[in-house]
Amino acid sequence: MLRKIALFTSFAVTIATLVGCSAASTGLSVFRNTKSNKLDTVVYLDGFAAKRNELKQAATGSSSYKIKEPVSTSPSFKYEARKEGGLGRISSTTISIHKMMGKNPSDQAEYTIYSTTQDVSGALQPGTNYNLTSLPGNYKVMNWQRQQVPGISLQPGTEYMLQFVLTADNSETAQIYFTTK
Fold first, then answer.
1. CA nearest 174: which of 33, 51, 31?
2. In this structure, are 70 and 86 located in the same domain?
3. Per-residue pLDDT of the chain (181 residues; tens, 9 = 90+)
4. How many domains does the chain fold into?
5. Do 26 and 65 fall into the same domain?
6. Are residues 46 and 130 in the same domain?
């Protein structure tokens, strides 16, 4: 009888340890999920900040950045660092805008925006609002046919994905989903 009690106690402790570890592991996973894929930048279109569903991020480890409000067909673009000096030295920036094809973005960009200079001063600067229909002369806008155009002109009522690539000491790539008015 004493042997059965010892065996049962050992079994109960093992089960309690496993369940406790599992719960702790799940809690740690949720914490890690909320921290993973968090941008050091905030991206704005027409003054609306891109946000993600933090609850979905915590549960699954993946959540897209979205702008809930519809933006104009000729939006402005701005990005900011979440903390002062958090990005380090910025050397280049590129924006590509892809039309959504059902639930996925097209593999080819409708528009690609990049600096025409190799100088690091040609990168888009944080805190500056850029009108994507009329960029300064040191930026080139190419359409999907590889033709240079003066700026972007998006279709009304259409879903897009903007990809912002920031090359810096702390480089980032942000994918932001949005719809036009």
1. 51
2. yes
3. 555 555 555 655 555 555 555 444 444 444 444 455 567 889 999 999 999 877 877 777 666 899 999 999 999 999 999 888 889 999 999 999 999 999 999 999 999 999 999 888 889 999 999 999 999 889 999 999 999 999 999 999 999 999 999 999 999 889 999 999 9
4. 2
5. no
6. yes
